[in-house]
User: Fold this.
Amino acid sequence: MKNINREELLSAAEIARRVKELAAEITAAYGGRRVLLVCVLKGAVVFASDLMRYLDLPVEIDFMAVSSYGSETATSGAVRILKDLDSSIQGKELLIVEDIVDTGLTLDYLCKNLLSRKPASLKVVTLLDKPARRKVEFIPDFCGFEIPDYFVVGYGLDYNQDYRQLPGIHILHPEKGELQPEG
Ligand code: 5GP
Assistant:
């Protein structure tokens, strides 16, 4: 693993406390109704697996993997679906579980795509939100932490596939121009 300078932004204990609070908010919002968690691979895996264990609701989980098409479509926000859901979501109550909202383009596209499949409802929970970087208006229904415009890793989030296993969230301080967000 490349040794890039990093500093802790959120400790494992702070995240654990907030995840339990979020789970209580979500439990209250669904009032006992069954919810299908749509975990966005790979970054949200750690968050989704912690969150679901504190939801006092009937819960199912499914997974999607997406990647951005690249710079030529960056303004349209088109994303490529690398792995789709296993089954129909028609009539189901969906909660997208995401690691971080940055420009908002990924979730804007994902919400439109999933809404076209006629779920009963669609909400979004994100662990982290960087509102300063928005290109499209997007407000998550539930959010763990708003953070400044840093590139962060850990608790599922990567840099070139490294650092996902760190228990806390860390800010990377690489050489200028070295960081490119990945899916
Ligand atoms: P969007 O810009 O479409 O809101 O976010 C797209 C994706 O970029 C996120 O799901 C996440 O995978 C990645 N991303 C955005 N900001 C960061 C960051 O600070 N760290 C890491 N590791 N990934 C990020």
User: Anything to note?
Assistant: The domain at 11-149 is CATH 3.40.50.2020 (Rossmann fold). The chain has one domain: 11-149. The mean pLDDT is 91. The beta strands are 6-10, 35-41, 59-68, 79-83, 93-101, 121-129, 142-146, 152-153, 169-172.
